[in-house]
Amino acid sequence: MTIDPTKQLAGPSAAQGSLSAQQVRGKKPADAAEIGKALTKNGTAAAKNTGNMPETPGEKTGGLIFSKGAMKKLETKAERYKDKDGVFQTKVVYKATLTDGTVVEYEKQPPLKGENGAYQQPQIRKNKDGSFDFEGLQHAVISDTAKNDKYNIIGCNDVVLKANEGNDKDVIDNANLRLSDGTIIKNSDVWVGYNKGDEVADLYSKTSSGNTPQTKSHDGVMSLQSIMLTDHLGTSELTVVPGMREVEYLENKRQRVTETTEQSTVSATYSHDGIKLREDYLNATEQVLADGYKIKTSPDGKNQWFYTPDGKAISKEEFRNRGLE
Fold first, then answer.
1. In angstroms, rounded to a whole number, what is the distance separating the alpha carbons of residues 165 and 286?
2. Backbone φ/ψ region at 210: left (φ over 0), alpha (ψ -120 to 50), beta
3. Spatial contact of 12 and 62, defined as CB atoms under 8 Å apart
4. Among candidates 148, 194, 149, 203, which has minimal Cα distance to 174?
5. Backbone angles phi and psi of 311, in degrees to 5
6. What region, left, alpha or beta, does residue 3 occupy, with left being phi > 0 and alpha being psi -120 to 50 degrees?
7. Spatial separation of the C-alpha atoms in residues 191 and 225, rounded to whole Å
8. What is the mean pLDDT of residues 55-74?
9. How far apart are CA 63 and CA 55, in angstroms?
10. Are 64 and 96 in contact (CB under 8 A)?
11. Which residue in 78, 96, 2, 74 sits closest to 42, CA to CA?
């Protein structure tokens, strides 16, 4: 059902308990006619109860405020989910298409509350440079376009940004949100997928001044979450700390995993089958002999690895005896 954002959208509020942004993506919409009946019925009842009371900010768009020129169209759909007691509930999910083609799916947005009494509705703002600010967005999925997009994630929670579905050059930045009473709201539980060539700022910075977007040399994903550390801090005990985890997809199906916290930044590279690779091996020089056999030598010359012409790893002894009966 497509809804004109300039007209009143009165409907049932989101059910208690919310799904994560990951869960929002995979649901099927209910029958549009049934949704329309429910919205009309509840809207009539609401009108009788509220009289001529002014509508609350973002009431037409599920609690989310759009700046002028930011939204192209809005749709709604009903979704079923199981609450904490295992009982089916139904809620409304909103799907907004922005003027550049970006699609945002989100749940009903509660106001942001400051420590000293400030209230502010989440909003999406279009800037003069064509970029979009997502301020205080909660429980949402943002899907980019095939064009070069510019997104700013500001004080969001449980948000997925899928900017890795095209061969474009996006710029993705992030910042904290300051409410009118001075309360600072930081990003939390944010996931960003990006492409090689995209400019992306780290979701977690050790410095108060933050960081600037940097060009990525590989495809990858970045998540702001609580990280479970073990030997990274020199202890065998499990430690859970806030931080950022980034996975870069390298050549030969390898992955480089980097975890950043206040205590440390730890990076490791894994083979296609999940085996952790040594740094001296990754930085080794390769020599190909006349018979096709290969020798890899670590930068300090202390370690060597040997391979057959078809890439099979062999021991030093097997290498020396190659070709002998």
1. 35
2. left
3. no
4. 203
5. 95, 5
6. beta
7. 9
8. 86
9. 11
10. yes
11. 78
pTM to 2 decimals? 0.71
Burial class, 116, CB count within 10 angstroms (exposed 0-12 / middle 13-18 / buried 19+): exposed
For tokens 């995209």, name the residue.
198
Answer whether 174's CB lies under 8 Å from 201's CB: yes
Q: Which residue type occupies 89?
A: Q
Place of tokens 């004080």: 155
Q: How far is CA 22 from CA 102, 117, 126, 157, 160, in A?
A: 18, 31, 25, 12, 7
Alpha-carbon span 183 to 178, nearest angstrom: 6
pLDDT per residue over 226-285, tens digit each?
Answer: 766 554 444 455 667 788 999 999 988 999 999 888 888 888 999 888 888 888 887 889
Range of lowest pLDDT (169-173, 193-197, 257-261): 257-261
Length of the chain: 325
Cβ(175)–Cβ(186) below 8 Å: no
